[in-house]
Amino acid sequence: MSDRDGLVSIVDPRFKNKNLIEALKGKGLSKKHKQSLCLVWFVHNILWARDVNNNISLGLIKLSEDLEAFNNYPWGYESFKMTVKY
């Protein structure tokens, strides 16, 4: 897979934490894609504290591929909304 191919091309709507860990351990991804998946792991498991059995949002996968957009995303606000919601 080249860097021109998006991460979304390797995941499906049922992509879960265990799939993410397997992808990170594998040898088939570029360093850039692994970096993006590490960001996804952090948000999914730490910041949003999602159940590891929940599907990982394709929107989050797409966002992780654009480092500038990822860094400018209002993570604090999203985290606060999730805390108040539950």
Describe this structure in words.
- The model has no long low-confidence stretch (mean pLDDT 84).
- This protein is 58% helix and 0% strand.
- The protein contains five helices and no strands.
- Helix 1 (17-25) runs antiparallel to helix 2.
- It has 86 residues and is an all-alpha fold.
Compile the SSE list and pairings.
Blueprint: H1 17-25, H2 31-47, H3 58-64, H4 67-72, H5 75-85
Instruction: Write the H/E string, N to C.
Output: HHHHH
Distance between the termini: 39 Å
Largest sheet: none
Kindly state the percentage of residues in helix.
55-70%
Average predicted local confidence, pLDDT? 84
Beta strand %: under 5%
Shape: globular
Structural class: mainly alpha
Give the low-pLDDT segments: none
**What's the Cα radius of gyration?**
13 Å
Total beta strand runs: 0
Number of helices in the DSSP assignment: 5
Task: Write a concise keyword list for the protein shown above.
86 residues, 5 helices, 0% strand, 58% helix, mainly alpha
Task: Describe the structure concisely.
By secondary structure, the chain is mostly helical. Helix content is 58%, strand content 0%.
